Amino acid sequence: xxxxxxxxxxxxxxxxxxxxxxxxxxxxxxxxxxxxxxxxxxxxxxxxxxxxxxxxxxxxxxxxxxxxxxxxxxxxxxxxxxxxxxxxxxxxxxxxxxxxxxxxxxxxxxxxxxxxxxxxxxxxxxxxxxxxxxxxxxxxxxxxxxxxxxxxxxxxxxxxxxxxxxxxxxxxxxxxxxxxxxxxxxxxxxxxxxxxxxxxxxxxxxxxxxxxxxxxxxxxxxxxxxxxxxxxxxxxxxxxxxxxxxxxxxxxxxxxxxxxxxxxxxxxxxx
Length: 271
Prior knowledge:
With about 270 residues, the chain is α+β, with helices and mostly antiparallel strands. The protein has one domain (about 30-270). It contains 4 helices and 14 strands. The radius of gyration is 24 Å and the shape is globular.
């Protein structure tokens, strides 16, 4: 009798232990808003969070162009996959596309259509989840240096070799973008579709170093270049970061979005 009782106790203990392990496995590895968290690395995530409050995963659900941009949050990085298809009308869509609209802006009689058309891309940008300043301040690349919340690539202030960026302004469509050879549509300057629909102080996208880009207005004032540092940003509190975060601003003046390079350590981008 005593032996049977002990056997029963051992069986109950093993059963309870097994059930608890199964519950832990089910509760971890959850996915929410294209976000992945690994239970095995939860300790490293908490360590990163405690040393750096700039957790940009809070911005993940602001990338809104459904089916055209996805954001996956990992322990130490964020992966943005973008199709680079603007959700607004453009003279650069093919004439059969519902978003095609001819250019009719009387404020720029010098407009001329460049020879490229918008085509779907596969931009994959892996950026730090907890961005920090870098002493290197590496130069921004030719091509995409970031992605806007509507899946569109963000470019720096440089034109292609042999071209003049100030002349290229006359090829920007009604929402201030245009496609490069290969059909990659992009913004060099303020993406007015976003500032008109989201607000001129809104979060607009992320650069490759993980730091966010905001519209030209902050605390009710329209910023100028002299309000920002050499990299075209500053540290200030934002709705998503009440304790403050470094961020870039678009302005009306050259270089528009980014100045002398990235403020932080750049991630990687493929397309």
